[in-house]
Specification:
The structure is a homodimer. Chain A is α+β, with helices and mostly antiparallel strands. Chain A is built from 10 helices and 34 strands. Chain A has a domain of 245 residues: 3-Layer(aba) Sandwich (Rossmann fold). In chain A, helix 1 runs antiparallel to helix 10. The mean pLDDT of chain A is 96.
């Protein structure tokens, strides 16, 4: 019954719900959860969880505490990430509203309007929906996102001056006049919260890319001001809610919660969201080894669980930093030493594996594999300098960092077999690693991978062409070719399991099919699984099962001998 | 846990062993079995089963009762069906002997020699292995098979005169002189047993393709003689063992066993082999709804089980004949009426679904689906005229027969949803049906399918080019194109699950990959699963799981809604 037990374990594990506190509507806690098998918006209405959305959602935004509804976007083309806009209210009603047929990458709203960024094949624009009427306000650089609005203007951020190593913020009024602003040229600055004339910013401009802090920009006086937050902790990343004066401060993959400067004691891990309701603070928390829970802290800082979760035994968790030409932080979860070990490479690349529950890592660990998750250069969570190191060099220094972590797994005696696995950019790194560093691995598992940047560029919409022009520091076709796994397909030496969704519009299937045919021509050993009616994003527990089951069976077969 | 239970059921079902009595070595019963998870040769040595082979076997032959060893061939290229020859003896020892690196399609032996037919890209030949020395005796037409030898000659049969609608037999001496013989031009005649000067034949020549009977050909007198066997049953197919004077007589998918004309009572179903040891008769038996067992019958014809098996509840079994321009026999297994129903199309095409345990059908039924298995024109078991009706017309009349059975499933109220599934030629029929008869189906599952006969022809070795030249009545490229599923890929309307082994050398993967890319270009809904290190033949229980699991999960998802 070995497969049957494996599948049971997988099903049980992916059903463990994920929670993320979004904020509040009229003093009701609003949070994201997968409790009923799909990503949905929930409200906690006098202690009871109420599902506000009818089917999986793709994009939402911070709820406005003075309102009783929240907008969200839902995929309406079987995973192709063409979205429609809806609003859900506290009554649990859902209404679709007029919206463009585009990929929606950000949403913001107030009582009068919903604004969004939408990308088509040709352009990325800001759209405004007012009294149910849709209008296109202006086109903007593709890698831009709206974050907040009020009756006067829209704020947001992005790569707005064509410098892939900096981010600026914008203020746009409803006649479409746009100002692009930055406290310092070349800094990474994001505008995220609008309060009266004050635009709240998170920026690295005072620290030369070491860490971020909170600032305000006054729309009238045009002054930048550092927000003084008295916390006894030096974070690398920070989130400040000016309405609740709550701070989530993060360093080395773990975060802490502060209420007016006073720390609220939480378990080790990360806080995925927090909000104040009356004089209680609600926050969602998890770690790599403990599933998400939602807690409530009272005035004295005493916490209790308000939305609980399963207990699981995930084994021993370590955090290491390894030296290449940079420090490479990595999370190490040991189940059996020495044992079959998976170097799990996160996607993004501008993302991180922090100490929070991970839907893809947990089943591997519970199936008995050691997992080591590096935060290679280009990861977030370690300052903008580290994050920007992969600009113009994807699959270069970051791959060296991953290989270093692989060497550590072997030399430290953790691994007797070592493979590489990842999804999206992690799938890209997997295919590149087994081709360019073929002797380093015993197996590879690539989900939603990039096999050929050049073909992908041609197939991409405005947003993802913009993404690639940032990553490759311009439309650098030569570098794209040199950094494409298909260029190295003939070098592959180890069994590969390739899993890809049919309708993926971020990392399209067809270059991966060409890659697989290269493997086939060269007589390589591989599995290839194409999943129907599914795209890049995972909205449902079932989707996660479809993607992970072939991987777990592949691993089982390999480790059977 | 819905998937987990499904996988448990699949694992339990494919582990139900299959038995086939081959004969005897020195009064020890010799039989094929999958009891330990792979197709192996077993001996029953004073009541105990002994496994004689170390890993799965691909081809063997009738054991010689006066000897203590049996030759067999094993795939040595990960499913590519390049075979090596071995012998196994009653001590359970196994020896590899010198053999050509070719696809071996038949074996025969005596105390001095092993002979075989082997196909390379360029030719098919008869090879002789004598005192461990290999020599090529002669090349022969590709679709030929050896069946027996003695000290003077080799006998066998095939399509030897270039007429795809007839089969002749041959006698070859060890200097390579070959006579091609037939009792009647245009008949289907097979030589299968050599006893002194007598060649035993099974031929349709007296019945104009209605049924077969047993004859002898005297090598000295060159006379043909009908073998008089006094049985009170008119079979369509017959097997007669002149050494044991045992008869297995078959009609309408069920067989009966006769000992010197006297019937041995067996349950309904089919007998997959029988032999006499001392004065007891051993035979293997199964039906579509009862797994294989090996029985022993004493002098009085009293039977007892000597190798038992699991009991399973497979539900209600019917046998119907439906009219197109021919009678189309079909087996009907009902689990839930009305219910989701699978039209299971067998491979070959020169094969049948008879009333015997089926590794691919059983899991579908136990998972709760109704299964209807047609014996479309071209199937064996109904006389040579019926079998030869597909010559020059594959995917024509046979497809009409399958569609007729589909209509019956719907009109009779058995099916509320109806899909088509098959492996090999059945996979071909599946892809062709969902393209050419797109409105008839709710889903399709194609394993090891033919997507493009033209490309397949170019990729095939001598044996399979020969097979196609028979099926298409010559190298008829135009007809091959017209009858290829890839020609109709854009018409597909229903979800498809396509499962294919990487190393398949009968129905190669690459045309199927092109077919899948056509589906993708046309935005069809499909799953595609490529299984590594596996070929066309299923040798292991694990292989069956790898092939069937995606199909069962696909069905589960469809029937979930």
């Amino acid at each position: 019954m070995e497969y049957a037990e494996l599948v049971k374990l997988l099903e049980e594990t992916v059903k463990i719900p994920i929670y993320g506190v979004l904020g509040k509507l009229r003093n009701n806690l609003i949070y994201l959860a997968t409790s009923e098998g799909e990503i949905s918006i929930y409200a906690l209405v006098n202690g009871k969880s109420v599902k506000l959305t009818k089917s999986p959602i793709a994009v939402t935004t911070r709820p406005k505490s003075n309102l009783d509804f929240i907008p969200f976007a839902r995929d309406v083309e079987k995973g192709k990430e063409i979205h429609a806009v809806y609003i859900a209210n506290l009554k649990g009603e859902e209404f679709q509203i007029e919206s463009p047929r585009v990929r929606i990458s950000s949403l913001a709203y107030d009582s009068k309007r919903i604004v969004l960024t939408g990308s088509s094949q040709s352009e990325t624009s800001i759209y405004v929906i007012e009294n149910g009427k849709l209008s296109k306000l202006t086109t903007i650089p593709p890698f831009s996102f709206v974050t907040d609005i009020n009756e006067k203007c829209i704020i947001g951020s992005g790569v707005l001056k064509g410098n892939p190593r900096s981010q600026e913020f914008f203020i746009i009024n409803f006649s479409g006049e746009m100002q692009v602003l930055t406290p310092k040229e070349g800094s990474v600055t994001n505008a995220y919260y609008l309060m009266g004339n004050k635009v709240y910013l998170i920026s690295d401009y005072e620290t030369l890319g070491e860490s971020y802090w909170v600032y305000t920009y006054d729309i009238e006086s045009k002054e930048y001001k550092r927000v003084e937050i008295p916390i006894e902790f030096k974070p690398v990343e920070i989130y400040y809610d000016p309405e609740d004066s709550l701070v989530i401060a993060k360093r080395d993959g773990e975060s802490r919660l502060f209420d007016n400067g006073k720390e609220i004691k939480t378990p080790r891990g990360t806080i995925s969201g927090a909000t104040r309701i009356c004089d209680e603070i609600y926050f969602s928390h998890s770690s790599l080894v403990s599933p998400y829970k939602i807690y409530k802290a009272n005035r004295e800082g005493k916490t209790e669980i308000v939305v609980d979760n399963r207990k699981v035994d995930m084994g021993e968790l370590d955090y290491v930093k390894l030296k290449t030409d940079v420090d490479v932080p990595a999370w190490v979860i040991k189940r059996k030493v020495p044992g079959s070990t998976i170097i799990y490479v996160h996607g993004g690349p501008w993302s991180e594996v922090d100490n929070s529950w991970d839907l893809l890592i947990a089943p591997l660990v519970l199936a008995g594999y050691n997992v080591i998750a590096p935060n290679y250069r280009g990861s977030t969570g370690y300052g903008s300098r580290f994050m920007l190191m992969n600009i113009g060099d994807p699959g270069g220094g970051d791959l060296r960092d991953v290989v270093k972590v692989r060497d550590y797994a072997v030399e430290s005696g953790i691994a007797n077999k070592v493979g590489i696995m990842g999804y999206s950019y992690g799938g890209y790194m997997t295919l590149l690693a087994v081709g360019k560093e073929a002797s380093k691995w015993d197996f590879g598992i690539a989900g939603a991978a990039v096999a050929d940047w050049v073909e992908m560029y041609d197939l991409s919409d405005s947003l993802f062409r913009g993404f690639m022009e940032i990553l490759f520091n311009g439309k650098n076709i030569e570098l794209m070719r040199e950094r494409s796994p298909i260029t190295y397909a003939s070098n592959v030496k180890v069994p590969l399991c390739i899993i890809h969704s049919q309708n993926d519009t971020r990392t399209p299937l067809s270059p991966v099919m060409r890659y697989v045919q290269e493997l086939h021509k060269n007589g390589k050993t591989y599995e290839f699984h194409v999943i129907p009616n599914l795209g890049h994003a995972i909205y449902k527990v079932e989707d996660a099962i479809d993607l992970l089951l072939p991987a777990l069976i592949f691993l089982k077969k390999l480790n059977r001998g």
